Structure formats: structure tokens, C-alpha cells
Amino acid sequence: xxxxxxxxxxxGKPRLIRFYQYFAEDMQQQIIRETFHLVSKxxxxxxxxxxxGSLIGxxxxxxxxxxxxxxxxxxxxxxSESELGILDLIQVFVETLDxxxxxxxxxxxxxxxxxxHYILQEVVMGGMVLETNMNEIVAQVEVQNRMEKSESHMxxxxxxxxxxxxxxxxxxxx
Amino acid sequence: MALKIVKGSxxxxxxxxxxxxxxxxxxxxxxxxxxxxxxxDEIKQELKQDNIAxxxxxxxxxxxxxxxxxxxxxxxxNIVEVMSSSKFTYKRIGYLAASQCxxxxxxxxxxxxxxxxxxxxxxxxxxxxxxxxxxxCFVTPDLARDLANDIMTLMSHTKPYIRKKAVLIMYKVFxxxxxxxxxxxxxxxxxxxxxxxxxxxxxxxxxxxxxxxxPKNYLSLAPLFFKLMTSSTNNWVLIKIIKLFGAxxxxxxxxxxxxxxxxxxxIHRIMSADRSVYIPFLVARVRTxxxxxxxxxxxxAMFVFVVxxxxxxxxxxxxxxxxxxxxxxxxxxLQCLDDKDxxxxxxxxxLLYGMVSKKNLMEIVKKLMLHVDKAEGTTYRxxxxxxxxxxxxxxxxxxxxxxxxxxxxxxxxTRLEGTRHGHLIASQMLDVAIRVKAIRVFAVxxxxxxxxxxxxxxxxxxxxxxxEVLYAAAWICGEFSEHLxxxxxxxxxxxxxxxxxxxxxxxxxxxxxxxxxxATVLKSQEGNTDSTAAQxxxxxxxxxxxxxxxxxxxxxxxxxxCILQLVKYIQKLQQKDVEIAEEVIALFAGELNPVAPKAQxxxxxxxxxxxxxxxxxxPSESESEDEQPRAIFAKEEPKHSRPRHTEVDEKELAKRxxxxxxxxxxxxxxxxxxxxxxxxxxxxxxxxxxxxVQIDLSVPLKVPGLPMSDQYVKLEEERRQxxxxxxxxxxxxxxxxxxxxxxxxxxxxxxxxEDITPAHMVDIVxxxxxxxxxQGQNVCLCHFRLSRPLADSxxxxxxxxxxxxxxKSPAQDGDAESAASQEPKKKSSKEKREKxxxxxxxxxxxxxxxxxxxxxxxxxNDIQGNLQDGSQVVVSVIFENKCDSFLKSMEFNVLDxxxxxxxxPEGSGPHDGLTVPFQLPPGVSNEARFVxxxxxxxxxxxxxxxxxxxxxxxxxxTHEKLDFKLHFTCTSYLIxxxxxxxxxxxxxxxGDLKCSSVKLEGVVMPFHHLLARICFRHHFSVVERxxxxxxxxxxxxxxxxxxxxxxxxxxxxxxDAKCDEPTLLGNVLDEIKQTFSQC
Lengths: 174, 1079
Description:
The complex is a heterodimer of chains A (174) and B (1079). By secondary structure, chain A is α+β, with helices and mostly antiparallel strands. Helices cover 53% and strands 20% of the residues of chain A. Chain A contains five helices and seven strands. In chain A, the strands form two sheets. A five-stranded antiparallel beta sheet of chain A has the order 2-1-5-4-3, sandwiched between helices. In chain A, α2 (83-101) packs across α4 (113-123), α2 (83-101) packs across α5 (134-173) and α4 (113-123) packs antiparallel against α5 (134-173). Chain A is elongated. By secondary structure, chain B is α+β, with helices and mostly antiparallel strands. In chain B, the strands form four sheets. In chain B, strands 11, 12, 13, 14, 15 and 16 form a six-stranded antiparallel beta sheet that branches. The model of chain B is unreliable at 1-10, 272-294, 300-306, 622-646, 670-707, 740-780 and 799-868 (pLDDT under 50). The chains are: A alpha+beta (174), B alpha+beta (1079). Chains A and B meet through β2, α1, β3, α2 and α4 of A and α1, α2, α4, α6 and α8 of B. Chain A: It is found in: Cytoplasmic vesicle membrane; Golgi apparatus. Chain A: It comes from Sander lucioperca (Pike-perch).
């Protein structure tokens, strides 16, 4: 099981947090800080695994992370997950982000946290790996985005229809 | 005008979407908190709007703020509102917010049940998907129970996208509502062979997680997984399957052998494909003998490949089972200690622990010491330090051949910067000094140097932890002061004013041991002709001690003032030229020895006490004295008592010596010293033995300044060579002795440090299931036996509301209806099922209810009930419309009896019927619930009732009436409760139970069928079965115990029964009788 997925930048600012076990908000922030502290002091050319911090469950849990440019992608997992499997999954996730955002950068994550969440939801569900095939993930995300678009289009149409007759009467109402 | 303003403000608020919020926060770096609090105020305004779009936008922003650490639980209700929007866009936002901030104690979750159920059955697969994803994050036991059935249905959805999500979420449902596991399992198993790889992978995933909790249940799936493993190309699935096998092989050894070949093939395949090198590591987890050998080869290759970390991890797994095979890779692992990656170094350290032997201990520790010097960061250094001590002290110093070396290692460790483990080092020093007599001279010299250089240890604040070492140093110097070279100097060092800055407990030891030292010094000085030296020493004590008398620490103060008075008195005597050294020494007389667990034997038997005489009559067989319960004396810690000198007669001594020799000879861990040397040994249960080495004199006893442990490595080599020669001689000698002496004993096993066979050295605790998670969120999940057939009572609760959707189907043509109503009236008796659940105690009852009715459009078909407490019963009735017309305005009414009443809404009369809240199109069934109040459950109940309804077809409608009976049998109040045979016996013995019996003639069925029938139909469980006799147990919902003893001979079955309620028992027996008379 995956216990938590954290994305933060080189300064420890959270860009996405996803806990699959309940922690209160202040605890979540502490965990982010602790994890950042553990991960950030490591060289880029050392291995991608380390034992979890004390807050998130100690050495029963492993932190598996990748560092891309300004962002750290950290997965906290228990012993039932394969370390390299998760490493691979992070890669899949990031490549998916790259496809969905077209050359993803930190700014995309900052301004579209919700979209990143929706993509993540197609990869991991409730702490378990849902899909590892990137094409499948991208396809599902796109269908849902299209649905959203068509809905907002419809709404705009409706709104226009409603507003047009409404505007001449507005004075009377006022 | 006003509207314009309002509209304007709405627009503005609406304009501020998530991006604007983020931008705003980024623009207000200085006063972020203030800016966010104004944003939250705005959001609160937005949430008050009726427009769902505005609300959704607000909730989306809250999700972002939640990430920044703001508590947004106050908006939980609004989140639910957004979740229930019909638009996918908003629904998704709502579910996302819910999954981020809902948890089990969020109370609004209760409100979501129906919404989620609606979304799950939505025609749009993405609505369903979003609901499943959200639910996976905040599922509660209640939600799990209510929705389990819906999710199970989704597992067979036409879209694989939904199927895989439904399969995955089932695991969460199992965790929260373990009862759902058994009914859902067959379908889960089906999904292992789903055509869609995603669904398959999800099913494997779920079963692997389940198997981690209780692998036994899933052994039966091994062949299926075996097939999957050889056929699947999905790496994820492979990883999971191999992990699963890792959990299964300990339970079924044959599996391991079978796995070797496919695994090796797999490795080859993957190695050549080079895609994912990771499989081999997992393979290592399948810890079976032959196979881990072959895996090791690959693991080694991995070092060259990529991931050292995982290689080490895999090795540590193998080490647990096959220490020898890993030990050969020592160099490789030592190299890893040089790795710059801390994770890798820590892993390597873990491995080292299991790899040391007498031969390589010094080498390994030397390497570690080098690392200690180089190490950066206190955590890693502390880790190294504890590891060194762990490695050396493991199994009672089993691998240490030279304790001087060890002491010097300990002393070297005290030079570590800022370690927290001063205490650990101190206790090791004490332990070694006390237990290894021969080392004391050396240890004392070292400790004196330490005391002398105490300022180095206490120098700065950072080194606070290490000053614990002084505690040990002071104590050793005081206790073994006779070995000191220059006691006066040490005494002076111990009484320095700087000592007052040490922690209280250390000062206390200082004071006490200064007194011991003082005694020693006096003794040496009194021998001299010049008495001034002795007086000077006393003066020194008197000068320095007042410092301690003023100490804030009570212990220090007390000891200091006591000793100060003593010294003053001594000084007085000295001035009178009285020799008092002997008397002072007597204060601390007696030698401190490690006390063996069997030390009791050394206490002389008081005269007149004959231990061999029996106080009471002897039991038939007496135990030998050696076998005396060791466990009682198992306390290993050396006791600091001082055995007084004892007088034992020569014979007794000789006898004891002999016994001891024999014990040593049989003790493979005892390191023999030369025959003349004094022997100190300890025996403890099991492998806990302390080897006491007689230090060879080739090692210099005095080492100037602080020692360097390195020299010992060299010396050790020389010593070993010498030893080897010596030993040969010794062995010859011994053999001669043995032959000439008592030839009873055989040559004892390996007896020296040179015979290094890992077999008896590496004491690895093998874990059964190292991978199983420790937190065990829901232990009961493990207790379900999946092999048991599914009982009716375990069916998932089905909710009724959904049938409303089926209503759409229009009424069929009316001709058929009239035909249907003309149908010959069939008298059918149908078995009704009722499910009752006692909420308080969470048990289930199945009520069999016989019902006779003569329906034209047979509506009543099935009864299910829930028991809320000891007296309330919820009966759910399933109405099925078997005719071709539309049924409406159904009214359900039951004639109340004294004992049982149908609960009606307030304000309605006692004879009013209850309206059934739905209509029934042809061929449709639906379920309604009715609450009954029961007074007593000891007698069966039959309730008469009527159902009135209107049959409607195209042109006409008729009023119809249907009579029925609800039959509550006594059996239906019983709950099959497992009972242990001892509890059962106790119950029978208690005497509270009334007896009754019944005989059944002409029963022709195997005994186990008979038992199964009683279990199934009457809710008993078998306590114990012996041949043709079985005891059974059940419990009623009002806590009556019912016990049965069933015996069979030929075609006669006799049942003896006991129950604390005779009426109930009689009825139950009647019902049992009836069951068997029908067959």
C-alpha cells in the first residue's frame, strides 16, 4: 500500500499532497517538512530509497523518491510495494503529467493542482496502484477533460440564453 | 441598481478561481497568512450562494488551502453539496475535496451514502469512477456495509475502467467491513482471470494485500497464480505474484521447490530484456533453500548493475535463512560501507551484524572504526557506534577473543563527538570489567587514564552524553583499585573541583569510589615508615569532600557527608599513630564476582540441614539436581552482591570442581584456558555463555596513554598462531587426561575460537512473516476462513430503494392479467429468509419462516429481517409481482398478538395497515421493511397478516387482498456462536441448565450430513465431534445458551439438550424433530 504521495519543490513548498491514511492538517505539514528534510539533503546521484521519517511510521515504511529539476516526487510505501516498481510508477506519473500538460513544469503543478490530482487518481486509487499503462491513463484523463469542456460549453450556452431576456428587465427589478 | 452591485460582486467573486487564488498568494509573500484569511472569508461568502458553480469554485480553492495546511473541515457540508451536483465537473471537484479532507470521524459522511449509491449506479461510467475514487479515500465501516453490495455488482460492470476500480476498492471495504470478504471472494477470484489486464492486475493487487494479513487462506489460489506467473507479461502483476509467493512459501514448502524453475526462467527473461532489473530482488524474498542460492548469483550481479540498495536488502533477507552463503560476499558488503549514500551504508551495516565471526570480527570492527572517524552527521555516527557495540556484544561476546582489544575499542569510542550513547559504552565497560576478571588490570589502567583526562570528555556542552562513561570509569577504578598503578593520582583526579559540574548520579559514584580508593591508598602508605603521606591523603579528602557535601543532589550530599565524617575520624586516629588501613579496607571488603545463575549452590548448607531428606513423602521420580528449574534463576544480570568467604570442606570442593570441569567440557562456548589458570565461568540457559579469556602474556599489559585498538589486530594474529600451537599440545594432554581419568565423557564439541563454523555462531532469529504489516488495521480480516461455504447469513445486505428505477417498465397488456388472476390457486409454501442483526452485539440470526398463501399475483416472496436489540425485529419483506399487471397502493397489515406487535407510525390506530412505499410493475420485486416488537422469544410465533393492493391494467383496476402468515420459529432466534470445548464443558458443569432430550427414528443420512443440517437449519455450531457423537452449541438473541449432545446409532439419533430456558429448548427440539421428519 502507498501511504502518502508528496510533491514539493526544492524549498519544501508542497505542490501536491495526497495522504491515503488520515492525518490532521498540522500533522500533514509536519510530515512534509520532515520528509523534505530527509530527502533534500541527499545527493542527486545516490539511491532513491530511504527509510521513512518517524512521523509517518518509521522504518516500516520506505520513502521512494525522484528529483526532477525543481520538484521532488516522494512516495511513502510499506513493504508490500516493490521499490523499483514504485520508482517506475513515479516515472510513469511524471511522463503522464508531461503528456497532459505538454512539457510540464513546476508552474503547471502550482496553478493546476486539481488537474494533477485528477491525473493521479487514474494512477493510484486509495493507496493502491490502479493503472501503470501511460496510454490508458492519458486516454481516461482526456475523456474526462472533454466531458468537462462540453459541460462548461453547455453551461455558457444556457447562461447566454438566460441572460439575454433577463437584462432588459433588470432595471425594473432593481 | 442594487442588483447591479450584487451582480457585480458575484462576478468578481466568481472570477477569482483557483489560479487567481494561487497568484494572489504568490503576490502576497509578506503577509500570506493575512491574505489567505481574507480569501477564506470570501470563500465563506461564496459557499453561501445558491449557485452551484460558485460553490464548486470555492470548494476547489479550499482544496488548495487544505494542502497549505489550513483546516477546511468546517466546509464539509458544502463539499457534500458539491458532490451531489449532477454535473461531472462539479461532482469531481466535490469528491476530490472530500477525499482530501474527510475521514472516519467526519460526521457529514453519513449524509453521503445515498448520493454515492446513486453515483455508483450512474449510467455515466466517469461519475461512477469519480465516486469510487473518492470513496476509496474516505470509506467508513458504515459506508462499507451499506455499499458493499453495490460495489460488488460493479465488479462485473461492462466497462473494465469501472471493474478495476471496483475490484481495488473492495480491499478498502474488506478492511472496514470484514464480513463482506467471504461473500465477495468468489467474484474477486473470478477477476483474476478477467480479460482486461488492468482488472487482472487490480485483483492480484487486492489478493496480495489480503494475503499479507493471512496467507493461509490463499494457499488454494497458488495454482492459479502459478499459471498467471508463467503467462503474464505485466511486470506489476509479476512483482505482486512473486511477493505473494514469498508469503505463501513458508506455509507450503513444496511450493518453493516448484517455483525455482519458473523463477529462474523469469530472471533470465528479464535480465535479457533488461527492462526491469528489479524482479530478481523480489525473487530473493521467496526464501527457500535451493532457490535462494541461485538467486544470490543474480543479486551479486546486481551490484554491478544498478541498485546496491536493493541488493543489500535482498541479501539481508537471504542472510536470515542462509547466513553462510552471504558471508562469502563480505568484501562486497564492506565496500558498500564506503558508499556515499547513507541508505546504502545503513543497509550494509545491518548485514554486517549477521556476518561477523571470531575470525573477522576485528577486521570488520576496524573498518567500522575508520568509518566512525570519517562519518559526517551524528545520526549515522551514532548508528555506527551502536552497531559496533551490538556486533561485539552479540550472543554474550561470543565472537570476542581478546577483551583488551574490546576495551580499547570502547575507550576509542569515547572520543566520538556528540554521541548520545555514552550510557551504552559505560554499561559495556562495566559489564566487561566485572565479568572478565583477567581484563581488570588492563581496564583499570585505561579507566584511570580516562579519569585523568576527564576534562576532554566534559569539555564542551555538546559532549554531554559521553560523560556517562566517567560513571563506569570511576566505578571500575574504585572497585578494582588494587590494580591501580598510581592510586593517589587517580584519587586526586577524582576529587577535582571540576567534577562538581558532572551530573549528580556520576558525582555520587565519584564520591563513593573515592572512598574505596582512599582505603587502598591508606593501605599502601601505612606500610611505609613515613606516616605523613597517609595523613596528607586524609587531608586531601577532607579538603575536597566539602565541595560534594554542598551538592544539590541528595545522593551525593549524603554519601559525601558520611564519608567526610569517616575520614575526619580516621585522621584523628592517624594523628594518634593508630594503624587503621585494614579496618578501612574492611569497609569495602569482599570481591565482586559475576554471580552465576547457579551461584546458590555455593552457599554452604547450614549444619543439621539435610537437603536430601524429604520433608514430605517423595514423589515417584525425583528430578536430578542439575535439572533444577533454570528459568527461575534465568536472570542474567550479574548481581552486585558480595559473596562472603565460605568454608567448605575439601571433599565437597573437589566434588564441585569435578562437576564444573565436566560442565566446561560439555560446553562448546567455554573457552579453555591453561589448566592451571583460575576459572570463572557462568552458565545461563540456552546459548548465553560468557567466555572468559585468560589473556596471553604476550600482550603488553600497560599501554601508555589512550590505547589504539589497531595493534590488537596484529597481536591477535600472532596470538592465534601461538594458540594454535599451544592448543595442539593441550589437546593431546587433555586427551591423555581423559583417557586416564574418568572416561565417561566424550570429547566435547568445538571448543575453541579457531573452529569457526557459522552453524553455531550466527544466531539469527528467523521471522515467519517479515513482510506482514505491523499495524494490522483490522485484525478480524485475518480470521475469515475463505474455504468455508458461504452461509445465508453472510449475504451482503441488500437495500431496497434501487428498485424504484425498475419501475419505469410500463404495465403490460391487460389480457394477460385477467388470465393470470384466473390461474389455479396454488398453495405453496415457501421458505422465507429473515436476517436479523443484533446491533449491540453484532450477531446475526437467520429466521426460517414458513408462509402459506394463495396469491393470484404472488407478491410476498421473501422476508428478511434485522434485529435491532433483544426485542425489536426488523422484517424486510420482498414483494414480487408475478402477474402481468401493475400493482399499486399496497397496504401491509398484521394482527398483533400479545407477544408481538407491528410498530406503526405515531398517531395511527392499532389496526391500521402500513402503506408499502412503492408500486410494482409486472415481474418486478422490491423490498419493504417493518418493525416488530417481541416480548418473549421462547415460543414460536405465527402472525396473521393481510396485504391489500390494487391491480391495475389498461382499462380497469381491481382491489385485491392477500392473506399470509409470518412464522417466527424459535430456531430463528438462535445465533450460531462458536464455542470452545473448555468453555462448553464449564457451561455444562455450571448446573444452571435444564435438561431435555429427544429421539429421532429412521434417520438415514451420514452423521456429518446430519450435523451439517442442524448447523445450517438451526444455527448451531459443532463444539467437538468424536466418532458418532458430537456436542453443539448455540445462543439465542436474548442470551440463552443452548447445548446439544447428538449421538447416533444405526438409524436412531438421540439428542440430549441443555438450556437455561426449558420452553425455548422444547420448542427448538420440536423444530429439529420436524426438520428431520420432513426428509
